[in-house]
Structure formats: C-alpha cells, structure tokens
Design brief:
This protein has helices at residues 17-32, 34-37, 46-69, 71-74, 87-96, 101-106, 118-145, 152-155, 162-172, 176-203. With 209 residues, the protein is mainly α. The chain is built from 10 helices and no strands.
C-alpha cells in the first residue's frame, strides 16, 4: 500500500498558469525524492497501517496549524483555506485503529516553516489540496489490502474544489514574484514531507512496514 503524495494524480484547473507552475515544481520534487515520498509502502497489516497514519499525523498537524495561523492573510480572498485541512478525519481514523487523543498529542511532528505571506499560504494549501487526489488512490488500495480498515482521511475531499482554488490563486498572484513565493512554499512543504517520511520509516520496526 502506498501512502500517496500530492503529485500522485494530475488535478483539474490547468487553465490556471499559477497552478500549472506550482504543480510542475512539486512534480519535480516528487520525481527527485520518490524513494522518500513512497517509503511508507507495502503496508501489510493493521499495525503497519497505524504507523502510516501516525506518520501522516506528524506532517498534517503542523502544516494545518501553520495554515490556520496564517488565516488573516487568506481570509480576505473569500475562500476558506481551512477547508483543505483533514486533520479531524485523520484523528477519526487513528482513534479507530486504537490511537488515543493523548497518544496523538504525544506523537513527534515535523518542523514546518512559518507562513509569512499570502503566496506562501497558497503554496502550502496547494500541497494539502493536492494530497486529496493521491488519497483517493490510497483509499482504494487500503480497501483492497485491509478490508474494513478506516479510511475517513483518505476519502475526505473537503469543501474546497480545485476549480475554485485555481481561480482564487490565479487572481491573488498576478505578479511573478508572488507566484515564485507560492512555488517555493509548496516545494519546501513537499521536501519536509519527503524527509519526514524517510526518517519515520527508519524509526519504526521493519517488521511493521
């Protein structure tokens, strides 16, 4: 079972030049570090799946917290970027596989740079929204490999559509400097995910992945 990255499936919205630019940059990172982004594959049992979910929590919690903290930057856009967050669904799955709230709170988390500008917020939001599409494939794989395993996180598409996000991002980033900030923020987030996945896989018992 592969825990999919944001670059697993091509999204709609490519009429947006900004979305295409960010996507191509993220795809390049995915290609360079595929061995890290896919180190949580071949999960064979519920213990391995639990480890994968805990790893994802260590990424999503800080990323979603950073995006929420930057809400004064993106709220004037008229779109709720908190809608790309799926931490509640992830917590639901973790509870279903026996991880308590206290255990979640004690899990290690990756270090995410603060979001200091609107372009950066949009770049980070891109990675979260993009992971929804990879999640669909993962959901199918989980159902095949581990029938009955909880998949609220991977099946959660959220209320923000690619089309709406692309429209807002295109309008909000008319200049090349802003677009480059968004690209760099998305790439930095992806690199954090890659490094975290690689480090987590090394830290868990080999018999569980």
């Amino acid at each position: 079972m592969t825990v999919s990255s944001p670059a697993s499936v091509t999204p709609v919205g490519f009429s947006s030049h900004v979305i295409r630019q960010i996507w191509e940059a993220v795809l390049a990172v995915h290609s360079e570090e595929a061995h890290q982004l896919h180190t949580l594959r071949d999960v064979r049992d519920l213990d391995g799946y639990r480890d994968a979910l805990m790893c994802l929590y260590g990424v999503h919690q800080p990323v979603e917290a950073a995006l929420a903290a930057a809400s004064p930057l993106w709220r004037p856009l008229g779109v709720d970027l908190a809608g790309v967050c799926r931490l509640a669904s992830l917590r639901k799955d973790l509870a279903a596989v026996g991880v308590s709230d206290a255990e979640c709170a004690a899990l290690p988390r990756c270090s995410i740079p603060p979001i200091l500008s609107l372009p950066q917020a949009l770049g980070v939001a891109f990675t979260l929204l993009g992971s929804v599409f990879g999640g669909r494939k993962t959901c199918e794989r989980v159902a095949e490999m581990l029938p009955g395993a909880p998949t609220a996180f991977f099946s959660d598409s959220g209320p923000v559509s690619w089309k709406r996000f692309a429209e807002v991002t295109e309008a909000a980033l008319p200049d090349p400097a802003g677009r480059e900030q968004a690209v760099q923020a998305a790439v930095a987030t992806m690199r954090c995910v890659a490094s975290w996945a690689a480090a987590w896989t090394v830290s868990v018992p080999s018999s569980r992945v």
